[in-house]
């Protein structure tokens, strides 16, 4: 990793962070990553601070934070706002737990449908296809 000097082109930054150039440019337009000044007759250069910033953005995204939420976290990145950062993370955790709950209900319904398909004998309508055509009447809607 280069030192603090800005020596990387945007292509080299993309390679160093494993993030596409167009994604970096998009992050710049969103204000998540700085766009360095272009020197007269030269090209923009990036350094280790830019690598760290992109790493922050991608790590937060991998944890499920939207780019708007990443922007909020970046405003707190000086480390002095732990309570606010914690509140954002707690909200994200609640969202994740809600999604897990919905996915578990979907898994249950799909498992039941697959079991009915496996138990079906003969040349009759597939229970899975029939259930999808008929909706989830009488069954718990796993999306709610």
UniProtKB/TrEMBL annotation:
InterPro entries: DNA-bd_dom_put_sf (IPR009061), MerR (IPR011794), MerR-type_HTH_dom (IPR000551), MerR_fam (IPR047057). Gene3D superfamilies: 1.10.1660.10. GO terms for molecular function: DNA binding; DNA-binding transcription factor activity; mercury ion binding. The keyword Transcription regulation applies. It holds the Pfam family MerR_1. GO terms for biological process: response to mercury ion. Residues 7-76 form the HTH merR-type domain. Mediates the mercuric-dependent induction of mercury resistance operon. In the absence of mercury MerR represses transcription by binding tightly to the mer operator region; when mercury is present the dimeric complex binds a single ion and becomes a potent transcriptional activator, while remaining bound to the mer site. This is Mercuric resistance operon regulatory protein. It comes from Halovibrio salipaludis.
